[in-house]
Amino acid sequence: MKFAVFGAGGVGGYLGARLADAGHEVHLIARGDHLAALESDGLRLESVRGDTAVDLPATDDPVEIGPCDCVLFCVKAHDTRDAAPDLEPLLGEDTAVVSFQNGVDNEGWLAEEIGAEHVVGGVAYIFSTIGEPGVVEHTGGPARFVYGELDGERTDRIEALDAALSESEGVEAVLAADIRVELWRKFAFICAQAGMTATTRLPVGELRETDASWAMYRRLIEEVCTVGRAEGVDLPEDTVDEWLEFARDLDPEMYSSLHYDLTHDKRLELEALHGSVVRHADEVGVDAPMNEAVHAILRPWADRAER
Known about the structure:
Elements: E1 2-6, H1 10-21, E2 25-29, H2 32-41, E3 43-47, E4 52-54, E5 58-59, E6 68-73, H3 80-83, E7 91-100, H4 106-114, E8 119-132, E9 135-149, H5 156-166, E10 172-175, H6 179-200, H7 204-208, H8 211-230, H9 239-248, H10 257-263, H11 274-284, H12 289-306
Parallel strand pairs: 1-2, 1-6, 2-5, 3-9, 6-7, 7-8, 9-10
Antiparallel strand pairs: 3-4, 8-9
Helix pairs in contact: 6-8, 6-9, 6-10, 6-12, 8-9, 8-11, 11-12
């Protein structure tokens, strides 16, 4: 298959390297110092599931790549609307654009720009980032990638993607029966983990040891599940307990990408996370006070980063 990785950072770079090792044609789209390093030295992946190095074509201009079988769309959620128009040169008649991003709104934003027929939902469970230009560091997490057509259909293209990812070493590939459920399941966890580590500036271990903070962590998950169910998403009844058990087993020093961005003066995905919960909650007429609190606390920091 011919792949374009739009946003070759922690998630996109990891998948690009693994797919290239499996024999697929992979093109990387990046920018700045990272792009310069990819062009001169290739992509190096340092992973707990095995290191690799690949020399792949890299560019900041999708026109140089042309139509692909599949585009892995891995930019930060706050860049989705700006980046979506640049997808056009990569689209053939049946190209799948798979959003491996945080939040539950990206697929809709993409559909508005390129048409819903091109959009595939995706969820990434992996702790990885750009360690330095040209280097992606995968430090933990299952490297589990879940994906599916938005209507649940088993199309030829989604089965081809499933085969490509399933055959790639270091990738746990899951073709979902209902990708909306999977998007909201992860959304529930990430709003708790990101929200609590960012607002307290503390790792999950200290949150677990503080009764009031751990109770808020739980309530953040509960609120997202309530909002999702009010929108008709069939979330499993054990979602809250499942995520709390998962969080109890996390490395006590674990933070979140939102915390990293906050403490490194980078733009925040706040509106794609807690801001999104607040908007969806308002639309379906339910309360989400814990998510409102996180949003209110972090909004000035997000504004500062935007400036």
